[in-house]
Amino acid sequence: MAKSSQVQKRQDARKAKIMDIVWRTPRASRTLIQKTTHMSMESTLTLVNELLEEGLLLRAGKSDGNSVGRKSMILRINPDGCYGMGIRFNARCITGVVINLEHKPVLTERMLVPGDTDTAEILEMLKACVHRLLDGLKERSGRLEGIGIASPGVMDLSNEMVKRYVHVPDWHDVPLREWMQKEFPWPVSLEHDVKCTARALRMQPKYRHAKNMLLVQMDRGVYMCMILNGHIYHGSTNISGEIGHVCAVEGGWPCACGQAGCLETVASDSAFLEQIRQGMARGGFQKLRALAGKERDITIADLVRSSELGDDEASALLSVAGTALAKVLASAITLLNPDHLIVSGILATTPAFQSAFLRTVEGRTLREGLEAVMISFETYDDLINAAGAAELTLSRRFSVREVL
Ligand SMILES: [Zn+2]
Which residues surround ligand 1, an ion (CB under 5 A)? Predict the structure, then answer.
């Protein structure tokens, strides 16, 4: 690498560090930045001035003065200094968002994906979603850092391609990043959607200081993102987190992956719906059928509602799922010693699931490991995946925020 390029890289990293300090610290001053970074005061002043000129920092008044009455300039992030765009998709919906430098959404877009949509049609919808957001940004698109895509499915080693997405049958080895890059002049990035959720969560005050975090998302499948020592753990071929295909039930049902008894066979939307279908064929789930009505298919929301209304059969399904997930995650807690464990999904909010999950985790985890971890059950909408994809684009420039 040429020397000038190395110098530039170091300056960019220092600027990113300064931006991070200002973002995390209310009423940050140049003296505080100098003390935190251990840079010389001359370098600190030069870089802060450059960030002010670039419009990424703003002057926010003066401090009250120190012991000798000298006042310092207070700095803050310019929210409109630049923007990141994120697009999230699945076989049902496409969600787009533009976030500012304070990680707040400034534009959102949603498009429903019709049934039986093929790969080419989804790609066209993704492009259309980006164009709509660009139209909303108008001249501010000059300050757009890039376009991030949060994708479901199995990624390839380089993260350039989505190899498989089972809910779109003709989806095979799709070079999604390259296809989108041909359409737009901004850098395009691609990442698994649950990893994008983890990125977005790390920007929230509640999880800003989380260092070792496990995020499990349960919906059509079950997937886990691991943040270890502040970094997303990708694994050697980028498929870490496929917790849905860890064996949870010995001799259990066959799984689409070719194994049997995978977690997804008892703790995913498709598994629940299949078990309900089979149960109804035997005359079971009468309360659930009555709740949903005869004229439409049962949904996962129906299952959750029925359980909450005291339906023992519905609660038993959720309890089995909670137990199965807990068996797998108890090992993860003991092995990885996380500080946060988040189980997300509509199912995870039900008392039946939670009580089975917690009871099983408590019975199978080393006490010290359990004491160290904060367990929470959440539901997130798809906006958070899209926001995480947008964070991915900002992290290209402000890489210290790429503590992930
Ligand atoms: Zn499997």
Answer: 245, 255, 257, 259, 262
Rounded CA separation 174/155 (Å):
9
- CB 346, CB 379: distance < 8 Å: yes
How many angstroms does the Cα of residue 97 sit away from the middle of ligand 1? 32
User: Measured in angstroms, how far is the CA atom of residue 260 from the centroid of ligand 1?
Assistant: 7
Q: What is the CA(114)–ligand 1 centre distance, in A?
A: 27
Closest CA to 197 of 164, 177, 171, 223: 223
Rounded to whole angstroms, the Cα distance separating 9 from 13 reads 6
pLDDT digits (tens, 9 = 90+) for 220-250: 889 999 999 988 898 887 788 889 999 988 8
Side chain identity at residue 259, one-letter code: Q
Which among 91, 345, 335 is positioned nearest to 197, based on CA atoms? 345
Q: What is the pLDDT of residues 48-91, one digit of tens each?
A: 999 999 999 999 888 776 655 667 889 999 999 999 999 999 98
Which phi and psi angles does 167 have, rounded to 5°? -85, -5
Interval between CA 117 and ligand 1 midpoint (Å) = 25
Integer Cα distance of 217 and 215 in angstroms = 7
- Rounded distance from Cα 183 to ligand 1 centre (Å): 36
User: Residue 13: phi, psi to the nearest 5?
Assistant: -65, -40
Which residues have CB under 8 Å from 314's CB, separation 6+? Answer: 285, 287, 288, 303, 304, 306, 307, 352
* 335 Cα to the center of ligand 1, angstroms: 22
